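WARN  no MSA supplied for this record, continuing single-sequence
INFO  ligand: pyridoxal-5'-phosphate
INFO  echoing inputs
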Amino acid sequence: MLAALPTAEPDPLWALLSTFRQDRRADKIDLVVGVYRDASGQTPVMRAVQDAEAQLASAAASKSYRALSGNTAFNEGMSRLLLGEGAEALDRQCTIQTVGGTGALRILADFIALVSPRATIWNTNPGYVNHRPIMLAAGLAVRPFRWQESETGLDIEAAIADLQDARPGDVIILHGCCHNPTGTDPSAEEWRRLAALCKDRGLIPLIDMAYQGFGDGIEEDAWGLRHFAKELDTVLVAASCSKNMGLYCERTGAAMVIAADNRPLANVRATLERITRANYSMPPEHGAAIAAQLFEDPQTWLAELEASRERVAGIRRDLADALARCGAPEKFQALRRQKGMFSLLPLDLSQMNRLREEFGVYGTANGRINIAGLLPGEVERLARTLRAVSSVSSLVHPIKANA
Ligand SMILES: Cc1ncc(COP(=O)(O)O)c(C=O)c1O
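INFO  complex generated
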């Protein structure tokens, strides 16, 4: 059997991280992996999470099997976080706990493949590196649509032009906020246009909410999703608690299916549970139990999240200011209006390689940097480095192979 095993390339992101670890330069900068870091470069366990864990440990509840849909209090809390307290759509949705946001994406991909196997999945280009492989793994066809900068923000005309080929029943993946990798989010008006497009053309939105709270605020970041939920009969949602609760390794997320009314919900739940049953039976309890505690008394958690959001937004501003001061090309100023942890630098592959090899600055090959990975003392140097690298080549950013 193993003789027939095709050679699998190591994951490029983790391979890059391993190169970073072996790099002996003291002033190297890691802007690769999408985790939040505080001003000392740590990815802290939130205070609110530590308190919840202490309470859970003292209660020492049973570790017996849980429900296939996971932790009920978590599922209810997630649906309110995503749709808003008292939202009308709460009565016509079904939410199950999943193994992180990735698990939610895969369960929804399997759900789509079961219900609508001929649907094409439309994926932003550039896009989150794992969207396409997840959809392909479920046997679905994937096509890209452009998600690029205009002079003022998202080039919505390019996105909509590419989506003209989408057929009724096709699924369009949108990032709820803090688009990965570009940091370019739709304005309210652009969300309205995208929702109208889905409605007119019979497209099903799959909204991936992996960074709620890292853009403009916990409620503000859900505006697009909530608008879609009001306007459309069917919306799929994948959500992650990895970033906004810092529960990365606890693999905590949720998959939600919003329907026109509550009639199909029991069947939707049974179907989602059949899919999880054939994968991993049920999701792990610990992260969801923590999240459920945070939902009960959210103040400390929300204050910590807001502080993290402000730190990232502050670094963004500082970096944009430093780039302006050192005379870097104007196109870098898009960083200022972009949202969340990531931005896509206007640099090509050779420039990204030069950043790494010559200056010890690590971003991904497609130009993505994690703003949250930058320490306050590194901002000026990064700005000067970006200016130096950008003056050599004027190649436009290549279309990413993974998009
Ligand atoms: C857009 C997007 N979706 C989903 C995920 C997956 O999140 P999780 O780590 O919870 O699986 C990520 C993680 O980086 C992401 O950026």
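Confidence is low (pLDDT under 50) at residues 393-403.
INFO  checksum written, moving to next record
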